[in-house]
Design brief:
This protein is of the alpha+beta class. It has a single domain, classed as Beta-lactamase, CATH 3.40.710.10. It is built from nine helices and nine strands. The chain has helices spanning 2-14, 32-37, 73-82, 110-115, 119-129, 131-141, 165-176, 184-193, 248-268, and strands at residues 24-27, 41-48, 53-57, 92-93, 108-109, 195-198, 202-213, 216-227, 230-241. A seven-stranded mixed β-sheet has the order 1-3-2-9-8-7-6, sandwiched between helices. The chain has a two-stranded antiparallel ribbon with strand order 4-5. Strand 6 and strand 7 form a beta hairpin.
């Protein structure tokens, strides 16, 4: 009887039909070599839901808040579609004729604005959505700290919106698993425009971002990779002293570091083969 009782207690503690998998984590201090290559500081996190495991570089930044910059375009696109401001990925907003750079200085639709991170397109989209609806949907989606202060067309750039690497991963998981408060129509369109690489072996969906953060510049690349029937979520957040970016070569290096570090780590983890 005592043995049977112990078995029953163990089963009740684990739950039926099986014990909940314990979350694991790995710290990879050796990933610092990739950040050193680009003369940046930063952090990396990868979540493997199959093994319920996190892989970290510089875990101290996991819960640290930064401006989301253009990574917010994932949520902004969903809100634009859900409110009906944008009908589909081919919805064009005419260029406002303000000279910025050759890539942005033309009419854009949703898919090209997302691909080229066209700030003015999303600023106009946000103005059309309006402050009340924007705040409603950000709250409902529980995005970052949900702070929309600083202006309807600036809050994710220079305003109050902040997001941590932990929250980036959480949002991406809910997005990919269709657990956000948006229609399947909206989610499917954004999943499609997020594809950055599609090969026979894997698909990567992601978004970059770059914004000022005090006396530092912050760069992001967040997304997920689907390969061999499995999915892995990643967040790379890089930082550097803003003054160093007055040098064109340093600025280019910083720009490249956002994506290139992710690919180097994914290769080392044998998740992609280039």
């Amino acid at each position: 009887m005592p043995i049977l009782r112990l078995i029953l207690i163990a089963i009740s503690l684990c739950g039926m039909p099986a014990c909940k998998q314990k979350q694991a984590s790995e710290i990879h201090d050796d990933f610092k070599k990739y950040y050193d290559q680009f003369n940046v500081e930063g952090s990396f996190v990868l979540f493997d839901p199959q093994a319920n495991k996190y892989i970290f570089y510089n875990k101290d930044q996991f819960k640290q808040n930064f401006s989301p910059a253009s990574t917010f375009k994932i949520c902004n696109s969903l809100i634009g579609l859900e409110t009906g401001i944008i009908k589909d990925e081919n919805f064009v907003i005419p260029w406002d004729s303000v000279i910025r750079n050759p890539i942005w200085d033309q009419d854009h639709d949703l898919k090209t604005a997302f691909k080229n991170s066209t700030v003015w397109y999303y600023q106009e989209l946000s103005r059309r959505v309006g402050g009340q609806q924007m705040k409603y949907w950000i709250d409902k989606a529980n995005y970052g700290n949900t702070d929309t202060s600083g202006g309807i067309d600036q809050f994710w750039l220079t305003g109050g919106l902040r997001v941590s690497p932990e929250q980036q991963i959480d949002f991406l998981r809910r997005f990919r698993d269709n657990k956000l408060p948006f229609s399947q129509h909206s989610v499917d369109i954004v999943k499609n425009i997020m594809i950055t690489k599609d090969t026979l072996n894997y698909i990567i969906r992601g978004k970059t971002g770059w914004a000022g953060h005090g006396d530092k510049d912050v760069g992001w690349y967040v997304g997920y990779i689907e390969t061999k029937g499995q999915v892995y979520y990643f967040s790379n957040c890089v930082q550097t002293d803003s003054k160093t970016l007055n040098d064109v070569n340093r600025a280019i290096l910083f720009d490249n570091s956002r994506i290139d570090i992710v690919y180097k780590i994914l290769e080392e983890l044998n998740l992609i083969n280039e």
